[in-house]
Structure formats: structure tokens, C-alpha cells
Amino acid sequence: xxxxxxxxxxxxxxxxxxxxxxxxxxxxxxxxxxxxxxxxxxxxxxxxxxxxxxxxxxxxxxxxxxxxxxxxxxxxxxxxxxxxxxxxxxxxxxxxxxxxxxxxxxxxxxxxxxxxxxxxxxxxxxxxxxxxxxxxxxxxxxxxxxxxxxxxxxxxxxxxxxxxxxxxxxxxxxxxxxxxxxxxxxxxxxxxxxxxxxxxxxxxxxxxxxxxxxxxxxxxxxxxxxxxxxxxxxxxxxxxxxxxxxxxxxxxxxxxxxxxxxxxxxxxxxxxxxxxxxxxxxxxxxxxxxxxxxxxxxxxxxxxxxxxxxxxxxxxxxxxxxxxxxxxxxxxxxxxxxxxxxxxxxxxxxxxxxxxxxxxxxxxxxxxxxxxxxxxxxxxxxxxxxxxxxxxxxxxxxxxxxxxxxxxxxxxxxxxxxxxxxxxxxxxxxxxxxxxxxxxx
Length: 441
Hints:
- This protein is 41% helix and 10% strand.
- It is built from 18 helices and ten strands.
- Helix 11 (262-280) runs antiparallel to helix 17 and helix 16 (390-397) packs antiparallel against helix 17 (404-418).
């Protein structure tokens, strides 16, 4: 005889049904997990994952840039040609950079640039050099060799990045390393969890090795982090790195303007000078200057704004603390494995010493190498187009034998001559405020 009340029997049936539903859901989820695991563990999927890791340089980390963009890459929030084709072979070309797309919400995509610290060939040469320096058979553990070096041991036991710890490294960023500059390198380093501290107490050994390796091979990603575009600096935005590949804002090449209208080229020439003035004199008290100059260093955004797309040859001088005496010659005691990794050889070209950098150096390079390409000779001779005094001003500012004051005067006069030629675009009125308030426009 069933002594349960009707309400109790109904509650019992509800509990049984809920229990069955839970069991069914668990079975479905378990089957899906096993199916996904089977797909991921298949030989083809495992091989593709291994190829991707090798292509990115993750198999050699922590001799790499970082891992902050790896999640975006493996979740397909960063896409580029063969990455989205599972059966396609890894490219074997020597491209150091290529275009891709980046998203934050899987709905809107924006173009981005993906680039390696060095070309694949230079990376191979550097890795071979590292293995050879240890006396071990090749291939070897790149990370193990670098960890055993005296330089890294100094980094390992220090909570501050001190000038003697970077002495002998080739990048121009480190030719005049004041303590204030090195503090900024650490404080703005975006590949660690706790960004903002000038001490490296929160850095793991892996973090320190990545920072040292990046400084030795190519300063470009660090300059983008130290002087971010969000604070008005003319550099691409840094979106992170995965292995030896970094992700940043893409731009069009400056050389695409050589056949454009006089107005567009005059605007680009004006921006080049204005941009260089901002690097030379800014509120932070750092003088950023060019050590090498060509059109590949610069790029154009969609609205025509100019930026420095390659910061690997930008030198920095601290105008507040000054700079220490020039380091010893490359054959001195500071020469080691890290000295010239970016060029794949134990000897490499180095930036000029700090004391030889003139206030007019960047402008002289501009007037010699880039501005004549934007202002061709036949148009400079037509006085009604760009002004009859422009050829003379270019000759003055391109002549390094002239005193600094005269070169800087010629540069300012050149800006005055180019300013009226700039276009007044209604689409980008924020770039040309003078068009709104000056009746001459």
C-alpha cells in the first residue's frame, strides 16, 4: 500500500526528471569533449599545431618577444593568409612582415601588421651562432645557452635595469642609456602582468630573458611600448606578441605618395618635419633622433597622418639626466652573445656615439634623403607651385657643414613655405584646423 501523499509523489517525479535531464546533459557534454579531444589529438591537428608553434618561434621561447597575443592568434582573433587554412603548408619565404586582420569582438575587423624581430634568415644565423658559442652540437636549447651567460646572470639577480647591464648591446636605444630611460623601458614593458613598476621584482626569469632578448635583437616593439600612440607619439600601436612575431597597427608605404598631387606631397613633407620636431623636443625630456633614414621607415594611416612604422633605428638621448661616457669598443669586455644578435653575426654595425649626435642630425637626413623625393626638382623650379625659395632651403638644411642654428632656421622656413600648400579636407578637418579659422583657405 502506497502511503505517500499526492503532493509527495509529484515532487518525487519532478526530482527524477531533473536528475535524468542532468545525466543527459553530462553525457552530451562528455561526448563533445571526447570528440574535441579526439580532433585535437589527431596526427594532422598535432602536426599543424607544431608547425604553427615553430613558425611563430614559440619552440624557442623564452628567446622571443613575448606571449601576450598568443591567445588572440590561437582563437583566430588575428588572421592572416595561411593561418586560416588548416591543410596549407607553412610559408618558406623570407618575409619579415606581412598584413593581417585583428578583432576584439569577432564582428569588426581592422587591418594590422605582423612582423618578426628579424628576417627568418637572420634568426637562423643568430640561433646557429648561439649554439656554436656554447660548443654544443646543433641544434641546441637556445634558452639554456642564453640563461648560462654572465650577462643574464646579472639580470637574474637584479631588481633594477642598470646602465652597465645593457652596455655592449647594439640597438641605438641603448647607446646613451640613462637610468631614467631604462626605468621607462621596464615600467612600460607590456609583456608582464603587473605593468607600471620600475622595479623588476615581479619579473620572472622568463620575463627577464624575453626583455633582454628583445633589446638585443630589435628595439622596435619596446619603442612602441615606451612611447605609445595613445599618448600622441607617432608610432604604430602595439597589440602584443606571440613568440618572435609581434602585432601592431598597419599603414600604407610613404612611397605611394611619390606620384600623388602636389598638395598631398606637401602635406607629407610638412608632417615629416613636424613629426621630427616633436621627437627632438617634447615634454618628457627625451630627444629621439634618426640614425638611418629611408621611406620604408614611415607609413600613412587612412586619414593621411604620418607615423614611423619602423622604430628599430631610433636613438634616444635623455636631456634631463644626460648620457654616460661612450661605451668601450666592440672588442671590449662587454662583447658577448647578445651584442649583435639582430644582425646574426658576432660583429655588426653600431649606432654613432652619443657625443657625435647633433641637434640638426634628423633634419639633415630628412632634407638629403626624403624631402627631395616628395618635392621633385621640376616642380621646385616652377616657383608658383611650391615656392622659389624651397630649393635653396633644402640645400641649406641638407648640408651637414652648416651650423645647427642655420639648418634649424632653414627647416622652419621650409615649413612656412609648405604650410599654404596643404589640402583642406572636410573629411579630416581635425587635421587642418587652420582651414577653419584662416580666411586665406
